[in-house]
Design brief:
With 244 residues, the protein is of the alpha+beta class. The chain is built from 5 helices and 10 strands. Strand 2 and strand 3 form a beta hairpin.
């Protein structure tokens, strides 16, 4: 059905302008009942979209500022891979104080999602100590030496409490800040993992001591190397993971 599905949100629903949404989705600003919103069309399964929608509704009910899915005229939260979400106003973090606010928001996310079920098809970093694949990650496509380095970084996270992680909070375009609130957007990489993957932030905004910061930074670099392999960014991130 593609973008024709937008009509499920009303006869007057319309696309306005294409937005940056990464390689996995086609993202547009849209107008629904005269209100600005954001629509994302991708190839995610219904089970995956149900997980994401349920998570965002939970976070919204718990007081976080997130892009809650807007239901269709008949109450569905997605149709044939199309999701329409609330528009989030604001700008990216710029200062050390801004990033500290981001760290506080991420910790709120982590606290609210203890024991949350894993996103369908995904695996955590510590699952990948023994598994080779999970959604966008395929360790068999990486050189053996690179896999060993990534696993050595993730092994330092073993035994820690899991929760939902946003998955890509260091990208400033995934954050919308106002004076009153911080919104995390683009939940495509969210999954259940250890919170350290979210907290290797600029300025060490999470306030880690040296040892904890090293663990978080190495694990995060290894994750980005694996999930993006093999684009230029993944190669750069792998270079940050220490040899063993």
């Amino acid at each position: 059905m593609g973008w024709d599905a937008l009509g499920q949100w009303g006869a007057n629903a319309e696309r306005i302008e294409r937005l940056a949404g990464g390689s996995s989705n086609d993202v547009w600003s849209v107008r629904i009942d005269g209100q600005l919103a954001v629509a994302r069309l991708g190839m995610r399964s219904d089970a995956d979209l149900a997980w994401e929608s349920g998570l965002l509704q939970h976070l919204d009910r718990s007081g976080m500022t997130v892009p809650v899915p807007i239901p269709t005229m008949d109450g569905r939260l997605f149709v044939d891979g199309l999701v329409v979400m609330q528009y989030m106003a604001g700008g990216p973090p710029e200062t050390e104080a801004d990033w500290r606010r981001v760290a506080d928001t991420l910790r709120q996310l982590h606290d609210l999602t203890q024991d949350w079920p894993q996103r369908p098809g995904w695996r955590s970093s510590t699952d990948l100590l023994h598994a080779d694949t999970g959604t966008r990650i395929d360790l068999t496509a990486m050189p053996g030496e690179a896999v060993a380095r990534c696993r050595a970084a993730w092994a330092r996270l073993a035994g820690r409490q899991s929760c939902v992680v946003h998955g890509n909070p260091t990208n400033p375009s995934n954050i919308r800040m106002t004076a009153d609130a911080i919104a995390l957007i683009d939940w495509d990489e969210a999954h259940v993992d250890v919170p350290e993957l979210d907290l290797a932030l600029p300025y060490n905004a999470a306030g880690f001591d040296d040892a904890a910061h090293d663990i978080a930074a190495q694990a995060s670099a290894a994750w980005e190397a694996a999930v993006c392999w093999k684009d230029d960014h993944s190669v750069e991130r792998l270079a940050e993971v220490r040899a063993i």
